[in-house]
Amino acid sequence: MIIHKFGGGILKTPEAVEQMLRIIQDIDLPTVVVVSAMNKMTNVFEHLAEGYFYDNRWDEEYEEIYRFHLSLAESLFRDRAGMWDRYLEPLFGELRNQLAREREDLFDQAYDRLVVFGELLSSALIHAVMEERGIAHRLLDVRGMIRTDSTFRDGNVLWPETTGQIQEMGISESKELWLTQGFIAANDSGAPVTLGREGSDYTAAIFGHCLDADEVWIWKDVPGVMNADPKEFEHTRRLDRLSYLEAIEMAFFGARVIHPKTIKPLHNKSIPLWVKDFDHPDDPGTQIRQMEQLEDEVPAFILKKDQVLITFQPRDFSFIVEDMISEIFAALHRYRVKVNLMQHAAISLTICVNADDAPINGLISELLPRFRILYNTDLELLTIRRYNRELIKRMTGERRILIQQLSRRTARFVLG
User: Fold this and answer.
1) Which of 36, 173, 339, 383 shows the greatest Cβ crowding within 10 Å of its Cβ?
2) CA gap 249, 229 in Å, rounded
3) Which residue, among 319, 259, 309, 264, has the nearest Cα to 34 in the 3D structure?
């Protein structure tokens, strides 16, 4: 069995959906196909959720979502009115009902209740097209299979419950193609919970783990895992094979090809992961599996933009020791601010985080009475795997370096 995941970055035109169908029809059964919200619709749903929660204004976003899916349906459906009324319009009706509800106290809960419709609409549209084309398959609602806790927007999978529910479907024993949604799940109360931004890769890994799949294939708009983002760096190249360790390190440092949570459930069962080129499906792509070391020691470059550097200094000039570090990290956890880099000195702790005004402002407001807080914005975090001095000089140039960290194989720089 192979789990296939198709991301929203590639499912954005009628031609892309047709290409996906061609790939699906060549798949050996049984298999599970995981789809994301189309054409970065998650971004629009995020704006819709923000408008709903903060201003009660969401009409423009709703219309954009409706028009996009209607346009795709008009291009793909043979019986546009019949298939739309049967599969898509009921979901839009449910979305309107959700928007008419009284707001929750927490934005994250409202976010998950609304943003899940991106994946539901995507899978419903593809399901309808496949039904019209006579492609035998079954549509599954992943909210009935993946169980999480109630950490909205970043749910933690409850593995025994999830494994039991997925295996009860009889997917491994069937000779069918199963279609389902990425990124979304539900808690024990049935409330929708998302798995973290770009979490559809993780969904594919969850199915792979629970079904003891032979492989997991993630289809992207790149030739595979590259040694750098082609949009940011010149002369990039594909890495043909990666170890689980190297892949998870690159994902942690900010490489955007694979969701950071994807690797662990596959590593635990030694399931290979392939990153495949959607536009060139016969190309080899990148294989990620258990390896002692890289076969190719090519350097890798990872750039995270929109970074904020925050320094905490005790107001009473005390040493930053375990109790203060615990206090700071407890606040980071409460505000769900994820640390990309940390540096510890005698009377200061400095962290580099993604720019996100609301949680950062909350964090600073809470800790200001105890700490003097300094921060810099509009920074970049550069990571070089398998570095040398020449690479460091070439990549940092004359830029201002606010923090530099060198380990055996990794160099990291916070750049102004």
Assistant:
1) 36
2) 16
3) 259
